[in-house]
Amino acid sequence: QVQLAESGGGLVQAGGSLRLSCAASGGTFSWSTMAWFRQAPGKEREFVSSIHWSGGYTLYADSVKGRFTISRDNAKKTTYLQMNNLRPEDTALYYCAARLGGLSRLASEYLSWGQGTQVTVSS
Question: Could you write out the DSSP letters of every residue in 86-115?
Fold first, then answer.
């Protein structure tokens, strides 16, 4: 089971950009499908994006499609989420997660989770 640590969050104005990173250690990162989820105060955790262990397949939530890009560097054991044209409604705690297997939007199917990194978008 991989251990995950997110970084890159912060405060940004609407329309701005941030790049989140998720560093993995231990486990089998190269065979892990990675994902980003987010949770805003008072709301349930929601799927943002997922990338297959091969890097060849990705999924996005409709709310971020065209604005966010997920990628991974298996040599560095790191997953990235490039977030452009940020909106106030993107404000949330962003979590990185890992699972063995294919792409999934379901948080319950991911076994490894990071502690999260806060993203705040001001209007």
Answer: --GGG-EEEEEEEEESS----GGG--EE--
Residue 86 · residue 120 · CB < 8 Å: no
Using only the alpha carbons of the chain, give its radius of gyration: 13
Q: How far apart are CA 73 and CA 120, in angstroms?
A: 26
Pairing of strands 68-73, 58-60: unpaired
Phi, psi of 41 (to 5 degrees): -55, 130
Residues 69-101, buried b or exposed e (16+ Cβ, 10 A)? bbebeeeebbbbbebeebeeebbbbbbbbbbbe
72-95 tens-digit pLDDT: 999 999 999 999 999 999 999 999
